């Protein structure tokens, strides 16, 4: 009876979250913020010209369109528009619920628990503030999230095939071609595989990810004289900037995030088995966040401004990646121990 | 309302989208120019000094989006002038 009620509640939450996210995406055509200035601008240029160099030529001085950003999301938007026969901002907004469906399915698949708990994890994903606003429709993070979650699903697999690390490497390469954060995920995932002494997997996933995801775009960009990161530069290094970034985060986000952070900490504190089983994921999320914070040391623009305008998009990836672990931790006190746990056998990392 | 929304077509919907509708007259002009001008032409956006800096930047981004793949070059106009003119590629800067 309790299971049935939980299942119904999870379904309702998932349906409500998905309906609301879809409504937010479709109540208006794509036209806001970075979509207009960056992603949509490049996609329209690519769609109209058919030339990848148009990503740079629309804003040759690189004053607002971030020509250094990887090209996969504008390519996907332009390709979808070609398939539709016209560049229609409203129809392209449908990509958002499509990607959200994939991300929710991947979260459900990554969660090692009963069906209601897996559905609750997927519901938590669709209810994330990033998806419950019209402001970020048309941004690249939804695609990045799907690619990273798919790669994590493969890397966490208990029954990997010889092709698993190659497929994960390909997905990480696509993630690196979507946003620079994808390259950070690639570095962290490779480091964790090396730490777990999964040498072959690290070589396959890291090598393929680097060769397909980082090298081609770097070469193409360099050939067109486009610098690597407009907002970051080695010469602007300053040790105090990451501290200022954390302080700015505390100012703009700590208060609304505090109940959620406390809840997550409490749930994990009472779930030793989940903490043990999910140690690589927790370490990976911590390393990813640490690398992002450290990157602020090289910021060229004001760190407070940068954090204020990007923090909610930057935290999307680690939060979404951790949702299965949090759902498993929340369910741990209510589940019966498996024979392996009773006998003390360690789960596969 | 839904019927009017879907019946508006891509052009009408885009001109009524929140990010575009704020400068509806300018956006309609830019969209007409995008349809009329050859793709090999750049665009010269003249904005006068009486137009606030944030509005100037907003119009420039909007023009770049609606006129893509053309390059939009911002030039100093007169008074409160806001105008778009075509220019052969590479010669838009005055």
Account of the 3D structure:
The complex is a heterodimer of chains A (349) and B (94). With 349 residues, chain A is mostly helical. Chain A has a domain of 105 residues. In chain A, 70% of the residues lie in helices and 0% in strands. Chain A is built from 17 helices and no strands. In chain A, α8 crosses α16. Chain A is globular and about 60 Å long. The two termini of chain A are 34 Å apart. Chain B has 94 residues and is α+β, with helices and mostly antiparallel strands. Chain B has five helices and three strands, in the order ααααβαββ. In chain B, α5 links the parallel β1 and β2. The radius of gyration of chain B is 14 Å and the shape is flat. In chain B, 30% of the residues are buried. The mean pLDDT of chain B is 87. At the A-B interface, α2 of A face α2, α3 and α5 of B.
Concise description?
The complex is a heterodimer of chains A (349) and B (94). Chain A is mainly alpha-helical. Chain A has 17 helices and no strands.
**Could you give the order of the helices and strands of chain A?**
HHHHHHHHHHHHHHHHH
Major sheet of chain B: order of its strands? Answer: 2-1-3
Largest interface: which pair?
A-B, 31 and 19 residues
Poorly predicted tracts of residues of chain B: none
CA distance, first residue to last residue of chain A: 34 Å
Total helical segments of chain A: 17
Mean pLDDT across the residues of chain A is 92
Mean pLDDT of chain B: 87
Tally of DSSP β-strands of chain B = 3
Q: What is the first-to-last residue Cα distance of chain B?
A: 46 Å
The quaternary organization reads as heterodimer
What is the share of helical residues of chain A? over 70%
Radius of gyration of chain B: 14 Å
């Amino acid at each position: 009876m309790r299971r049935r009620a939980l299942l119904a509640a999870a379904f309702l939450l998932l349906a409500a979250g998905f309906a609301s996210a879809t409504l937010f995406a479709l109540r208006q055509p794509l036209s806001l913020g970075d979509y207009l200035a960056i992603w949509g601008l490049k996609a329209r240029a690519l769609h109209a010209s058919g030339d990848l160099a148009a990503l740079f030529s629309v804003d040759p001085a690189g004053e607002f369109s971030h020509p250094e950003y990887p090209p996969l999301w504008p390519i996907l938007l332009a390709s979808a528009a070609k398939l539709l026969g016209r560049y229609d901002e409203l129809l392209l907004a449908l990509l958002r619920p499509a990607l959200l469906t994939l991300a929710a399915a991947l979260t459900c698949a990554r969660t090692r628990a009963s069906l209601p708990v897996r559905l609750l994890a997927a519901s938590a994903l669709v209810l994330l503030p990033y998806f419950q606003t019209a402001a970020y429709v048309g941004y690249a993070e939804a695609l990045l999230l799907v690619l990273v979650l798919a790669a994590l699903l493969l890397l966490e697999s208990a029954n990997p095939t010889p092709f698993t690390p190659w497929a994960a490497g390909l997905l990480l390469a696509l993630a690196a071609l979507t946003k620079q954060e994808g390259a950070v995920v690639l570095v962290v995932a490779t480091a964790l595989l090396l730490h777990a002494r999964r040498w072959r997997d690290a070589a396959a996933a890291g090598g393929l990810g680097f060769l397909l995801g980082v090298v081609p775009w770097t070469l193409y960009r360099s050939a067109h004289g486009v610098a690597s990161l407009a907002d970051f530069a080695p010469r602007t290094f300053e040790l105090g900037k990451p501290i200022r970034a954390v302080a700015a985060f505390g100012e703009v986000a700590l208060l609304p995030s505090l109940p959620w952070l406390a809840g997550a900490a409490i749930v994990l504190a009472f779930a030793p088995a989940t903490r043990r089983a999910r140690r690589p994921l927790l370490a990976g999320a911590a390393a990813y966040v640490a690398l992002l914070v450290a990157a602020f040391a090289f910021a060229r623009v004001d760190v407070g401004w940068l954090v204020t305008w990007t923090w909610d998009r930057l935290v999307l990836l680690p939060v979404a990646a951790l949702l299965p672990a949090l759902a498993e931790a929340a369910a741990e006190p209510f589940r019966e121990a498996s024979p392996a746990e009773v006998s003390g056998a360690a789960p596969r990392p | 309302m839904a019927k009017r929304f879907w019946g508006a077509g891509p052009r009408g919907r885009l001109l009524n989208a929140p990010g575009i509708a704020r400068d509806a007259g300018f956006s309609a002009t830019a969209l007409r120019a995008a349809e009329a001008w050859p793709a090999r032409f750049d665009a010269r956006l003249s904005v006068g000094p009486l137009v606030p800096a944030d509005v100037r930047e907003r119009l420039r981004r909007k023009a770049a989006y609606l006129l893509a793949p053309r390059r939009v070059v911002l030039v100093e106009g007169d008074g409160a002038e806001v105008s778009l003119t075509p220019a052969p590629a590479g010669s838009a800067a005055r």
